[in-house]
Specification:
13% strand; Aspartate Aminotransferase, domain 1; single chain; 16 helices; alpha/beta; three-stranded antiparallel sheet; 2 domains; 460 residues; Aspartate Aminotransferase, domain 2; 16 strands; binds pyridoxal-5'-phosphate; 39% helix
Length: 460
């Protein structure tokens, strides 16, 4: 049996969590239209909805909050953050934002015009939506292995370099104001991208005069995988791997709620002084002045410290080890998961878990609901509800290649015993999987429907 990873910390503060009964949970999900985003957190025992903004901060970060300088302009915490960003990312300019999607919005509303294209290995859902809302097109060009949930490959998040080259030739560089690469590839299963692939992506884009922006949310986890899996990078200090990663890019968007180990915040960093000027104008309009960008001084301090802690090798060994441990426990029970396990989450493969439910009956969402009823565990659907779209020509639904349930593990929050509990609950549901019924959508908004849609069970 696999051993859980050893924690590189001890616990100083605890937060009680409450257990409800199965009957209570059945009533709760019916009331919220079978959408777990609408359940109150107090009604959840283990919350794996997201690893975003849910990290436990360290005593060093909490101490930093007390040193928040709440001056409107030029607070000292901004300069601490600037120092950390220069050290780790190497970009000369940055603006803080209230979270990652605000960095995306500021960047895209500055650079994109209707009809433009933005290629990436795979855009995250907010990135995709923020591009499309500008009238531009978000294009995913991940390697084919990245779409096969059972294929073992050390860097399943890699960009398909050949397809990127062809895409630029066919589309024309005039209509591609920037290219992106998401590290690790969240929507593709938290899969890493190799340093070599990041370099090649930069080379192809730059040859055509197109800048590369990295979606850097989980860059520290990505750097750890590079160190562990890329032969040429073995044993190299993580800070050096991070520095080299960003040396191939012209900027990055970052959600500090991930590898910033903070509860809120983000930033947009870049090399170009001209772009920085334009970005500042947008930022002041929608986020705030250039030295706070929608955040309190204390938040900036928590991020400055969290960015440095997130690159600690012992922390990352524990972090990725805990996720891998949960994956291994599930595999012991025969539960079908996406392989290999990524950096921040274990993904259940809902197609293989519930082969009797076609994608039109929302198998992954049905599994999300059942895991809550069975064990008070909140997970999230990354499948038809989140990623299906309408074919503009035919009006028919185009189903996504992957139909997943994500068990995102918050950083430094749950114990390894709780990982065992999660595995047991999933295994119990797997044993009676044939009893699960599908769902249908009864209400949906225009954008990002998974957050607020309502569902109803299909009669079986
Ligand atoms: C979370 C995330 C974002 C958006 O960041 P928010 O802070 O949630 O707005 C963008 N890209 C990726 C890959 C993410 O995981």
């Amino acid at each position: 049996m696999i051993r859980p990873p050893i924690e590189p910390f001890r616990i100083k503060v605890v937060e009680p969590v409450r257990m409800t009964t199965e009957d209570e949970r059945r009533a709760i999900v019916a009331e919220v239209g079978y959408n777990l985003f609408r359940v109150r957190a107090r009604d959840i025992y283990i919350d794996l909805l997201t690893d975003s903004g849910t990290s436990a901060m360290s005593d060093w970060q909490w101490a930093g909050l007390m040193q928040g300088d709440e001056s409107y302009a030029g607070c000292r915490n901004f300069y601490h953050l600037e120092e950390a960003i220069k050290k780790i990312f190497g970009f000369p300019y940055f603006v803080p934002t209230h979270q990652g999607r605000a960095a995306e919005h500021v960047l895209f509303s500055t650079l994109l015009r209707p009809g433009d294209y933005v290629p990436s290995n795979m855009h995250f859902d907010t990135t995709h939506a923020n591009i499309e809302v500008q009238g531009a097109h978000a294009v995913d060009l991940v390697i084919p292995e990245g779409l096969d949930p059972q294929c073992e490959h050390p860097f399943k998040g890699n960009m398909d370099i050949g397809r990127l080259e062809n895409f630029i030739q066919e589309t024309g560089k005039e209509r591609i104001p920037l290219g992106m690469i998401t590290i690790t590839n969240n929507n593709g299963g938290g899969q890493p991208v190799s340093l070599q692939n990041i370099r090649q992506t930069g080379e192809v884009l730059h040859r055509h005069g197109i800048p590369l922006f990295i979606d850097a949310c989980r860059h520290a986890e990505n750097a750890y995988f590079i160190q562990q899996r890329e032969a040429a990078q073995s044993g190299r200090p993580l800070i050096e791997i991070a520095r080299e990663t960003f040396s191939y890019a012209d900027g990055c968007t970052m959600s500090a709620k991930k590898d910033g180990l903070a509860n809120i915040g983000g930033f947009l960093a870049m090399r170009s002084p001209e772009l920085y000027e334009r970005v500042c104008q947008r930022l002041i309009l929608v986020e705030g002045f250039t030295t706070y960008g929608g955040l309190a001084g204390r938040d900036l301090e928590a991020i400055a410290r969290g960015l440095q802690e997130a690159l600690d090798e012992r922390y990352l060994a524990y972090r990725t080890g805990q996720v891998r441990y949960l994956g291994a426990r599930l595999q012991e029970y025969g539960v079908p998961i996406l392989e290999p396990v990524g950096g921040h989450a274990v993904y259940l493969d809902a197609r293989r878990f519930l082969p009797h439910l076609p994608q039109s009956e929302l198998p992954a969402q049905s599994l999300v609901v059942e895991l809550y009823i069975a064990g008070s565990i909140r997970t999230v659907e990354i499948g038809t509800v989140m990623n299906a779209h309408e074919d503009p020509a035919t009006g028919e639904t185009v189903y996504p290649a992957l139909e997943l349930v994500r068990l995102a593990i918050p950083r430094r929050v749950y114990t390894n015993t709780q990982m065992d509990y999660i595995a047991e609950v999933v295994a119990q549901v797997y044993e009676r999987r044939e009893t699960l019924r599908g769902l249908r959508i009864v209400h949906e908004p225009e954008f990002l429907r998974h957050f607020t849609a309502r569902f109803a069970p299909l009669e079986g």
